[in-house]
Amino acid sequence: MTNETQTLDLEAVGRYLTQHLQGFSGPLSARKFETGQSNPTFLLMTPERNYVLRRKPPGTLLKSAHAVDREFRVQKALAGTDVPVAKMHLLCEDDSVIGSMFYIMEHMDGRNFNDPTMPDVTNDGRGAVIDDMNRVLAALHMVDIEAVGLSDYGPPGSYFQRQVERWSKQYRASETDPVPAMNELMRLLVERMPEEDGQRTLVHGDYRLDNMIFEKGGTGCLAVLDWELSTIGHPFADLASVIMQWQMPPGREGRGLAGVDRQALGLPSDAEFIARYCERRGLPEIENFGFYLSFCFFRMAAIIQGVLKRALDGNASNPERAMKIGQYVPVFADHGLRALSE
């Protein structure tokens, strides 16, 4: 049986795009991107131009997960703001076309950094890339959600309470082996929830360097990708997500900066990145940052538990990689506990 997350019915896609996408003409070929564990993503190639297709995976899915229609909506809404996004071409909600909902967007011809040490970039270039990452993050959190039509994009109330409840349920629904550290982390996050401070912004939900496309010959961000976890929430979750990623081991697997001499590479420290962000947004020093960091480790542990479960069930986007990253659930839970204690 063919794994539908690895292949596309190109004939069906071609027919649909011929009817619905202005300017489209074949012949059409496709290549699956290695990234995109949650929603399978394909490069569509034609003689005239390239596109990107992002689809909901087939099979039985967790409720509210893989919402490609939300991804499409938020990126379409952000067109023309200071947050760079790819152009959205069309959303197909008819599952009968290829077996699940999908959308078509512009293919951004730039460069993507899977390794934040950016070995092929100069020190000045590295610093400039990370500073633009910081600029875009601040811009995202200053988007006027009413003006862009996203005021209803997330429910009211405590973002962190809602998220901890949601991801605890998702984790339980995809749990395989017991992870004591995860149980303790879920308990402590509820116990140490900070009071609401009135900040309610658009949040990306998985903001990190490898979810961004940069200019080929420069350091400016062309587009932020992978908006599946976006909602209206608390901006410090996105900021902490960046810091969380940097605490991982270096290299393409961990994609972090743990143990790296950042100054020697022209990269900012965690404190410098946070201070620059606060400066851009006109905020005072952030208190209780350990909670926000812990929350991000918890959420990532829950996400990769879901990836592992899909691999075991046979409908993961990249089964081999899914099995590998699924082993990191206890590691992320341990990091989450450490962040709370520090």
How is this structure best described in words?
The protein has about 350 residues and is an alpha+beta fold. It folds into 2 domains: about 10-105, Phosphorylase Kinase, domain 1 (2-Layer Sandwich); about 125-340, Aminoglycoside 3'-phosphotransferase, Chain: A, domain 2 (Alpha-Beta Complex). It has helices at about 10-20, 70-80, 125-140, 160-175, 180-190, 235-245, 260-265, 270-280, 290-315, 320-325, 330-340, and strands at about 30, 40-45, 50-55, 90, 100-105, 200-205, 210-215, 220-225, 230-235. Strands 1-2-3-5-4 form a 5-stranded antiparallel β-sheet, with helices on one face. A hairpin with an 8-residue loop joins β1 (about 30) and β2 (about 40-45). The protein is globular. The model is unreliable at about 1-5 (pLDDT under 50).
Summarize the structure.
The protein is an alpha+beta fold and 342 residues long. The protein has helices spanning 10-20, 68-78, 123-141, 159-174, 180-191, 235-246, 262-265, 270-281, 289-313, 319-326, 329-341; strands at 29-32, 41-45, 50-55, 88-92, 102-106, 201-203, 212-214, 221-224, 231-233.
